[in-house]
UniProtKB/TrEMBL annotation:
Gene3D superfamilies: Enolase-like C-terminal domain, Enolase-like, N-terminal domain
Cofactor: Mg(2+)
Entry keyword annotation includes Magnesium: yes
CDD domains named in the record: MR_like
Top-rank lineage group of the source organism: Bacteria
Keyword terms, alphabetized: Magnesium, Metal-binding
Species whose genome carries this gene: Kaistia geumhonensis
Record domain Mandelate racemase/muconate lactonizing enzyme C-terminal: where: 148-243
Name this protein carries in UniProt: L-alanine-DL-glutamate epimerase-like enolase superfamily enzyme
Amino acid sequence: MARITRVEGLMVDLKPKVKRVDAIQSFVSQETPIIRITDADGAVGTGYTYTIGTGGPAILSLIERTLAPALIGREAGEIERIWRDLLFMTHATAVGAITSLALAAIDTALWDLKARRASLPLHILAGGAQERIRLYTTEGGWLHLDTAAIVDDTIRAKESGFSGAKVKVGRPLHEDVARLSAVREAVGAGFEIFTDANQAFSVDEAIRRARAYEAVDIGWLEEPLPADDVDGHVRLAASTSVPVAVGESLYSAPQFRDYLQRRACSIVQVDVARIGGITPWLKVAHLAETFNVAVCPHFLMELHVALCAAVPNARWVEYIPQLDSLTTAGMRIEDGHAIPSAEAGLGIAWDFAAIDRMTVDGSRFLIQS
């Protein structure tokens, strides 16, 4: 092992390549803090996190002012100990989005460093359970699109090898059902249609809608209710045959435990950034495994492909490109499946020249011994 001697940080602001609108918001930017950690032997690990629209400067400030200085002199390989120590340092703001997202940037950098030192790809270092994971696409199912556009995009996705697609819901019920039915008629019975409500419904409305969606044979209803309404999810899950998916808005492993213990969901969508990094992500995935529940993570496909391949109960990776403008090579796709990189580390081919060009003015910091 070697001690940490240097922590660098910056932020880029990525604009979505397509218009993205769901039941509660429109995506106009994606602030992406990036952290590089160097140890005494000169090995470097790169990690990152993200926000949708706002909050990036707050994350970067927490890292620069509080978390990064506490890393100097620590043994880089003691990832679990570091994660727990940093969580305790920020206990006054945990559990919370900003703290978890900041922890994730550091934790992913430490795992990248560890994997590079071991000359192993992340999916092998973290478990090596699967060689490839099925892909579904989210890029064509946004709420503002008309039915014809959604149908056309889903047909193209099927022809490209995808075996599933997500359609946002939250229009008047009859419109949602008509849109979903049109997609089902176009792609046939062998193609998965997933739906996402982005926490827009009340319990009674979610139950009503889930029962209406059953006829279309959807793969799951994602975030039907506010994420803190566990009781509502229990009621919903007991009232419908549609699988209930949750996770992108949960920020700690105990929150997932509550959902799983109470049978309030049947799909876990744990997000590696929002849960606080790879260290807690793996714990949630294995916790879900003990309940015989599948993991289908939210967003961040460039990192989730390796994590999904590391565990046995991962079922899908969500195709929604994030890092194309910051990398020299994209995620490998074969026959509608995501293939984890064989390169040592996280498997992300960072383009540091592009990152330098796109760095937000005033966002850089350096902490060193």
